[in-house]
Amino acid sequence: MASTGAAGSPCSRDVTSSKQLPLMPRCESIRWPVRHARRLAEAMWQTEPVTRFRLIGEVSSDDLAAVRPVLAQMVGGAAVTEIEDGLQVEGTMEGADARDVNRRLLSALRRVEKRTRLRAEWTGGGSIDRFFDYVPKSTRAAPPEPQSR
After folding, report:
1. Does the N terminus or the C terminus of the chain have fewer Cβ atoms within 10 A?
2. What domains lie within the chain, and their CATH numbers?
């Protein structure tokens, strides 16, 4: 029968025979892999190409002063202007797809202020994707970019 450590996790020692159990992690490190395995796997094995997305969106929040620095940090070349209902933001972000960049931005904003809403239009990868918070609303083909000479 295995004992439990301070965090309630099984330890690597058998209480009845005090022998080392095979393939059991040490008590101090058992929670680390569980917490970080998904994040590590995504970072190490990301096979999707990274696409640059252009953002045009509106952010409304109970605390706009706290949200503004997060927008400036997350969105490259962010042009943040104050509008009647909140903030209008234009800039770029990179990610695997529009859903990924939208999720990352809204999650970062909500870490600062929980009651934050994002209406976003992401253009990149040949399509325009519109979101309200985390919910995709529409996807359409992006018009071809004008060729510069």
Report:
1. C
2. 2-44 (no CATH), 51-141 (3.30.70)
DSSP 33-58: HHHHHHHHHHHHS--SPPEEEEEEEE
Q: Which sign does the torsion angle of CA 127, 132, 134, 135 carry? A: negative
pTM greater than 0.70 (yes/no): no
How many Å apart are CA 87 and CA 66, to the nearest integer? 12
Amino acid at 82: E
Tens digit of pLDDT for each residue in 64-92?
Answer: 999 999 999 999 888 999 999 999 999 99
34-62 residues labelled b (16+ CB within 10 A) or e (exposed): eeeeeeeeeeeeeeeeebebebbbebbbe
